[in-house]
Write a structure and sequence with these properties.
Layout: E1 14-21, H1 26-37, E2 42-48, E3 53-58, H2 64-74, E4 78-79, H3 97-118, H4 127-141, H5 143-154, H6 160-181, H7 192-216, H8 218-224, E5 230-235, E6 238-243, E7 252-255, E8 264-269, E9 272-275, H9 277-280, E10 286-288, E11 293-294, E12 299-300, E13 305-311, H10 317-330, H11 334-363, H12 368-381, H13 385-404, E14 407-409, H14 412-418, E15 423-427, H15 428-432, E16 438-444, H16 450-461, H17 467-478, E17 487-492, E18 496-501, E19 504-510, H18 511-516, H19 525-533, E20 537-545, E21 548-558, H20 565-574, E22 578-582, H21 587-596, E23 606-607, H22 615-624, E24 629-633, H23 639-644, E25 647-651, H24 656-661, E26 664-666, H25 672-707, H26 713-732
Parallel strand pairs: 15-22, 15-24, 22-23, 24-25, 25-26
Antiparallel strand pairs: 1-3, 1-4, 2-3, 5-6, 5-7, 7-13, 8-11, 8-13, 9-10, 9-12, 14-26, 16-21, 17-18, 18-19, 19-20, 20-21
Helix pairs in contact: 1-11, 3-4, 3-7, 4-6, 4-7, 5-6, 6-7, 6-12, 7-26, 8-10, 10-13, 11-12, 11-13, 12-25, 12-26, 13-25, 13-26, 14-25, 16-17, 20-25, 25-26
Length: 742
């Protein structure tokens, strides 16, 4: 088993990844899935030919892993030893070519007489020499086809190996029969070269296919390589090198210039520039000062720094990213399910066509050897290798190249849907704006102490994490105000908060909340309207007194658009995609920010006064018009909307909850990546369709040509091998993808 990592899941259902070797075509995928689903407790199983892995959902029970391994083995395949997918080092480009070399050396003398015929020279190796050259190829190098074909027969199914084994054995046996029954001194036409060359070409095709597979998993191997093997721990006896596995949360580590940060944490000492390009796709180093967050795997710049570890192992950002990529590459795309259904009946149908070809040629008056050769060509050309690789190969290449640019696709369904998106809804704060609003104005009711009220508002918000709360605290500290610890603070979702500062009780929140509480704005009503018209987000500070709730002050906040946000919206509009901003602000503030971003509020591109709990409903209304909707957000309150959308895109600078709910994570938090994510989805789906088209063309066009006698077994085997290679090569062209906004 290549991987046996249990992924987080509800207690009643667990998920397991198994490595499986020996699968050769889409029919193998179907057979392994059926075997795994028969194991008691298994809910679902998805097998991926390109990654040679299976993902099994099951109800925990005794010895389930052993039973799953046994099921794989009984189906005729080999469960691999447990080691994480992608952690194996890069193999030599020529790894595994030795078997192909032997086949080429033994087959070449058999083919040379055919080539000599083209130049007018007629000579042929004696039959016994042809037999000695072809037999090792047939039964030693080709032993894998017999073993796998036999297992398929026992399971009452068929696969590529069975077709190759039957076809080449028929050619070899026919040659032996013609040899032993030929009159003494006669030189019959033998087909040893056909069987030997077919086996060799199939082995060559599988080697080229395996080599291409290694390239598609390069993204995962590159991510694993970001983990350093050792860390410089500051212990009781000074600085000491320890294995990364021994690093604990809270440890202090030294990171020298040019080294990778071993884990996530916070910068304690020093100042440096950090290269996070492998994680975020951002080429330029970013400045990190004391107190800044550090991500494991990124590269330290010119400074020697000390960090405190905040997360290790599977809890690090890098580990979560690796899981995202592995999950996307292991999952089965919806379109692949149709291919698997076709493949399940494909091999039996091909065997039937081969028998009909044999009988038809015999009925037509052809000799037995000619009829057999045409039937062999049908068996060889029809191997469904390319069908099984068409979809997963493209998905692996697409998710891999996206990961290099900071776009992490969590599941293949999101990848397959994203290209059809025609409406993109953006959360405003932290997604289209910087998310760090400033206090622009503090308007107090005449006769009130401005400094005392600002101190009270900042004290009330001192424990809050909302961007507006931080803005109030920052404004107070800029004036060197001492803050008091609040009591009985209670957050009111989507509205504000309330609590006590000293002996006084306050509420601070949106004007909408004030309307619900029937708090009059009095002399500040006109000022509130003016501030909203200018695009500010306005909140109110209210004191609870013996006479009820009394307005004390208005607070006006302003945010700035993210660099590139306007360009990102324009890029999507240029692609024919409608863009919408969803905001909890009042209409005036939301529309003013929308216009700064190039949106048209009059066309419904700004949805204002949307409470966090109502964002999912807003997305639902957009979908109700028959649109395919993508939602882009970064906060906890965006998670329901991200899940409700057809495709959710979470900003990587946001919360874990948002990233868990989304199908795609944009690590840089850059709105420009949205268009890139949709583009890489479109390119990947295009490759899937191209691959499936050519895979079907090879079979649909090749089988009739072989049955009618236009393809020899040698040409058929070359075409079959090239079908797999062409599918993998076409998928690998995705590695050339470049960002639209680069």
């Amino acid at each position: 088993m290549s991987r046996m990592n249990t992924h987080p899941a509800p207690p009643s259902v667990a998920t397991l990844d198994l490595g499986i070797s020996g699968m050769t075509c889409a029919s193998c995928v179907t057979r392994v899935e059926k075997a795994l689903k028969k194991v008691p407790g298994v809910i679902d199983a998805e097998v991926n030919l390109a990654t040679e892995s299976a993902r099994v959902s099951y109800r925990p029970s005794e010895q389930i892993e052993a039973r799953l391994s046994r099921a794989v083995r009984d189906a005729g395949y080999e469960p691999r030893a447990a080691d994480a997918l992608g952690q194996t080092p890069d193999a030599s480009p020529w790894a595994g070519f030795g078997v192909v070399t032997v086949g080429l050396v033994l087959s070449l003398p058999l083919v040379l007489p055919m080539l000599a015929d083209l130049t007018g020279r007629h000579w042929m190796l004696p039959a016994w020499q042809q037999f000695l050259l072809a037999t090792p190829v047939q039964f030693v190098l080709g032993a894998r086809f017999y073993v796998a074909g036999w297992h398929a027969l026992k399971a009452r199914t068929g696969n590529m190996d069975l077709l190759v084994a039957i076809g080449t054995t028929a050619g070899w046996a026919l040659s032996v029969w013609l040899w032993v029954t030929a009159p003494e001194g006669a030189m019959p036409h033998l087909y040893f070269e056909a069987s030997a060359v077919v086996v060799t070409l199939v082995l060559l095709g599988k080697w080229l296919e395996a080599r291409a597979k290694r390239q598609t998993t390069a993204a995962i191997r590159a991510l694993h390589a970001l983990r350093p093997e050792q860390a410089h721990l500051i212990g009781l006896d000074g600085e000491v090198d320890v294995p990364l596995a021994e690093v604990l949360v809270g440890d202090r580590l030294v990171v020298r210039p040019g080294e990778r940060f071993p884990a996530d944490g916070v910068l304690l000492e020093g100042h440096t520039q950090v290269d996070e390009s492998m994680l975020t796709g951002e080429a330029l180093p970013v400045t990190r000062d004391v107190g800044a967050r550090l991500t494991g795997g990124s590269i330290n710049g010119e400074g020697r720094v000390v960090m405190r570890v905040g997360a290790v192992g599977s809890e690090t950002v890098l580990a979560r990213i690796i899981r995202l990529v592995e999950d996307a590459q292991a999952a089965k795309a919806p379109i692949q399910r149709l291919v698997d259904q076709v493949s399940a009946v494909f091999v039996p149908v091909v065997l039937g066509i081969a028998v009909l070809t044999l009988l038809a040629w015999l009925a037509w008056g052809a000799s037995g050897e000619e009829a057999i050769i045409h039937a062999v060509a049908v068996l060889v050309i029809a191997c469904p290798c390319a069908l099984g690789l068409a979809t997963p190969a493209a998905i692996m290449a697409g998710t891999g190249v996206a990961a290099k640019h900071g776009i992490f696709i969590k599941d293949s369904q999101a990848l397959e849907i994203a290209h059809r998106v025609d409406t993109v809804a953006f959360d405003k704060t932290g997604t289209l704006t910087v998310g760090q609003p400033r206090l622009l104005a503090f308007e107090v009711v005449p006769g009130q102490d401005e400094a005392a009220l600002l101190g009270a508002a900042a004290s009330l918000q001192s424990g809050g994490e909302h961007p507006l709360a931080r803005a109030v605290v920052q404004a107070a500290r800029a004036r060197d105000m001492a803050l008091d610890a609040p009591d009985d603070v209670r957050a009111v979702p989507g509205r504000g908060s309330e609590g006590s500062v000293g002996v006084r009780s306050y509420l601070m929140g949106s004007l909408r909340w004030m309307e619900e509480l029937q708090v009059p704005l009095g002399v500040l009503a006109g000022r509130a309207t003016e501030l909203q018209r200018q695009g500010a987000t306005v909140s109110a500070l209210v004191e609870r007194t013996g006479d009820g709730l009394t307005l004390r002050a208005l607070l006006a906040f302003g945010d700035e658009p993210k660099p590139g946000a306007r360009q990102a919206l324009a890029e999507l509009r240029a692609r024919g995609i409608r863009t919408v901003m969803i905001s909890g602000d009042n209409c005036g503030a939301a529309e003013a920010m929308g216009r700064r971003l190039g949106l048209r509020p009059e066309d419904g591109e700004v949805l204002a006064e949307v409470l966090p709990a109502d964002k999912a409903a807003a997305v639902g209304r957009l979908k109700a018009g028959g649109h395919i909707v993508a939602m882009v957000g970064d906060g906890v309150n965006d998670a329901p909307a991200l899940a409700a959308a057809d495709v959710g895109l979470a900003m990587g600078n946001g919360t874990d909850v948002a990233m868990h709910a989304a199908g795609i994570t944009l690590m840089r938090g850059d709105p420009l990546l949205v268009a890139d994510a949709l583009d890489v989805s479109a390119r990947t789906v295009t490759k899937i369709r191209q691959n499936l088209f050519w895979a079907f063309v090879y079979n649909v066009a090749g089988i009739p040509l072989a049955a009618l006698g236009y393809l020899s077994p040698v040409i058929a085997s070359a075409a079959m091998a090239m079908s797999s290679v062409s599918v993998m090569s076409n998928a690998l062209l995705l590695r050339r993808w470049r960002q639209l906004t680069a």
